[in-house]
Amino acid sequence: MTSSPGPRRQTRETLRRITRWVVALALVAGLVHQVDLGEAARHLIHADRTGVALALLMLGLSRFVKAARSYPLMRIQTSELPFWVCLRSYLASGSAAYLLPTGFGSDVLRAVALGRGRGLVPEVTAAIAMERMLSGVALVTANLLAALYALQGRQPGRFALGSLALAAGGLIAMLLPLNERVRALIRRSWINRRLSRYADSRWMRTIARFWNAYYAYRHQPGVLVLVLVLSLAETVLVVFSMGFLATATHTGITTAMLLVVVPLTLVLHRLPITYWGIGVADGGFAFLLKALYFVPPTHALTVAAAFRVIELVANIPGALLWRDLAGAGQRPTPAAPSEASREARLPVGVGG
Question: Looking at the domain assignment, is residue 201 inside a domain?
Fold first, then answer.
């Protein structure tokens, strides 16, 4: 007689959470050890308020762009989600992410909040998945541009070549599901034949709806380019936000330095090593500034700490919209997908 895997899974999850917190605290302790706390406090206390306000304004604008970029993708799936509904849901889930154990938790909240009451969870999830893919490609592209800027016309280094390879890989991963030949191969594959016995199950119908919804973007290249550009703009706004903070705290860190360092730091922020990239992103930020521009760790971590604070301040207003995540005001009846999504409904796998 076998024991239930539930308690073992719960134990592993608890150990994983504890490990992530231990790693985060250890990294923070190591960073604090490198910092002159008195000097850092003076930089923060005597920071120029106008500069801090401009940094907060830039970060708030980046959050708006980040939220708004999801709407064109949602609009392809359904006409039942107005712009302000999508925006409020994004801001609410962004603030709730601080209470969630994973970076994808906010996406799950948003998919359920927007799709549950309208019967469109697979379609909304497809839009969020495409948004994530485009965001990743934009971030890697920003790293490539940063590397080329840092090299100033010299021979591309390993980092630049690696960034180019990652950007190409991201584009391929994003576009392959949109290719009709790939879809045809999947339909003829042994996996599809094995799954055909479950064609009438609820979860297979959900997967088929997701696949068809994702495929709808095959005919919307203009929208994909727009969202990619908005993702790049959001990264640039974060750079300018940190640039205003660096100027306000009188650390000597320039915007030119941040154009190179910040894109890579944002990649480190997404690594699932610690919660919210604590210690990992901050340490990488300080290391890169010291290695490339000989900036003292105290100055780098002063800016990083200030950015953490204004990032929290920028996300706090989203907590006022948490009621949206509970499905307040949603229609109880399912809504029909958009025309573009319906036209994309070719046979995929076992789904219609």
Answer: yes
For residue 350, tell me if it sits in a domain: no
Our count of domains for the chain comes to 1
Helix, strand, or coil (residue 348):
strand
Residue 209 corresponds to which amino acid? R
The SS3 assignment for 241 reads helix
Residue 131: Cβ within 10 Å count: 23
DSSP, collapsed to helix, strand or coil, labels residue 351 as strand
pLDDT in tens, the chain (352 residues): 444 556 777 777 778 778 878 888 888 888 888 888 888 889 899 999 999 999 999 999 998 998 888 899 999 988 888 898 888 888 888 777 777 655 566 788 888 888 887 888 889 998 998 898 888 888 888 877 777 777 665 555 565 666 666 667 766 766 666 666 666 666 656 556 566 665 667 777 787 788 888 888 888 889 999 999 999 999 999 999 999 999 999 998 998 889 888 888 888 887 777 777 788 888 889 988 988 889 999 999 999 999 999 988 888 888 787 777 765 445 544 455 555 555 544 444 444 4
The pTM is what? 0.78
Give φ, ψ of 36 to 5 degrees. Answer: -85, 100
Q: Residue 22 domain-assigned?
A: no
* Cα–Cα dist 206/210, whole Å: 6
> Is the CA virtual torsion 269, 126, 118, 350 positive or negative?
negative
Q: Rounded to whole angstroms, how far apart are CA atoms 47 and 51?
A: 8
Q: Give the helix/strand (H/E) hosting 86.
A: helix 83-96
Which burial class, exposed, middle or buried, applies to 197 when counting CB atoms under 10 A from its CB (0-12, 13-18, 19+)? exposed
Neighbouring C-alpha atoms within 13 Å toward the C-beta of 82? 6
Q: Tokens representing 132? A: 């994530």
Residue 229 belongs to a domain: yes
How far apart are the C-alpha atoms of 21 and 263, rounded to whole Å?
A: 25
